[in-house]
Amino acid sequence: MVPREVTTHSTMERKATVASGELLKPPVLSDDPMLAASCDAANELLVADFTLAAGSAEAAIVGPDRISSWIVFDEDLNPSFDENLMVAWVDELAAGFNTIGTERTFTRADGKEVTVAGGTYGWSADRDTLLTIVKEGLESGQTGTVEIPVLQSADLYAGAGERDWAGYVDVDLSEQYARYYDDAGNVIWETAIITGKPNAEMATPTGVYYVTTKTGPTTLNTYESGRKEPKKTVVQYWMPFVGNVIGLHDAWWQPGFGGTMYRDGYGSHGCVNLPSAKAQELYGILPVGETVIVHW
C-alpha cells in the first residue's frame, strides 16, 4: 500500500503581542540627569545674538535659531559647534553678499529699464575676516550690530541683483549718449558720444564700473592694424573706468558725435569719446570712485 502525502496549512495570526521586555529602549531617557545637563550646556552656546550689516542694511542675523543649527553632540552628549556647518553658512552668506559683476536691473530716471552685468563696481565680502567675526562672536556672546568686513564697498546695499549705487554716469551704447545723474536722479551733465567700434576687439565693454583715476594731459597709446608701434594721442581730460585702459576722454579729432558714427568708421578702440568742452565740464565735477554704467 502506497502511503498518502499529507499537506498541512499554517494560519497567520492577525495580531501579535510584543511584551515590554522585547522593545528596544533608548539609551537615554527624558528624565536622565545627563540629558538635562547636556541641554543646559547647549543653551549656554546660544547667548550670541547679533546682526551682520552693510551700512544701514541688514544682511543676516546670527541668533539662537541660526546658532542652534551648528550645534552637534558627541556620544557623551557634550555639545559643540560643527565648524564645517558654520563655514558653509559663512561661504553662502559671502557669495550671496557679493555684487561685483552680478546682473543688475534698474529703471533709469527717464523710465528706461536697464539690465547690465559685469564690471568692477560693487560689494565684496572679506570672507576670512567674516568667519573670524562669527567665531569670536559666538565665543564672546556678541550682541548688537556688526559691520560685514569687506574688500570693496559700494554706495548702498540692497542685495544681489539690486542697484547699489547712488549718483552715476550712464553710458548708453544704443543711444550713443551719456548722462551724469546725481544722487537724486537729476541730470547734471549730458552729451552725445562715440564709443568703441562694434567688434570683438574694440567694443566698449558693458558693466558697472567706477572711475579709477583722473589725469590730464595724458598720452594714449593705441595699436592700429598692421602697425608695430602704437599711435600716440594726447588728450586733456582722461577719466578711466576699466583699469587705466578704457575711459571717458575728450576726442578733439572727431568731426561729430552721436548717431551711428561709432559703426560708420569713427568708433574708438573702446573708450568713450566726448566733445572737448563736455569732457572739460565732466572732468571738473566727476570724483574718482564715481560709478560708471555702460549698457545697451
Architecture of the largest domain in CATH?
Beta Barrel
Overall tally of structural domains: 2
Question: Can you tell me the CATH topology of the largest domain?
Answer: L,D-transpeptidase catalytic domain-like
Total DSSP E strands: 19
Instruction: Please report the number of helical segments.
Output: 5
Q: Gyration radius, to the nearest Å? A: 33 Å
Strand residue content:
25-35%
What structural class do you assign from the helix and strand content? alpha+beta
Q: For the record, what is the CATH homologous superfamily label of the largest domain? A: L,D-transpeptidase catalytic domain-like
Sketch the topology as an H/E string, one letter per element: HEEHEEHEEEHEEEEEEEEEEEHE
CATH class placement of the largest domain = Mainly Beta
What's the pLDDT, averaged over the residues? 92
Q: How would a crystallographer describe the biggest sheet?
A: 5 strands, mixed
Protein name: L,D-transpeptidase family protein
Pathway: Cell wall biogenesis; peptidoglycan biosynthesis
Keywords: Cell shape, Cell wall biogenesis/degradation, Peptidoglycan synthesis, Transferase
Active site: 249 (proton donor/acceptor), 271 (nucleophile)
Q: Nutshell version of this structure?
A:
This protein has helices at 33-43, 64-68, 83-97, 127-140, 276-285; strands spanning 49-54, 57-62, 71-73, 79-81, 104-107, 113-116, 124-125, 143-147, 150-152, 168-172, 177-181, 187-192, 207-210, 218-222, 231-235, 238-242, 246-250, 272-274, 291-295. It is α+β, with helices and mostly antiparallel strands.
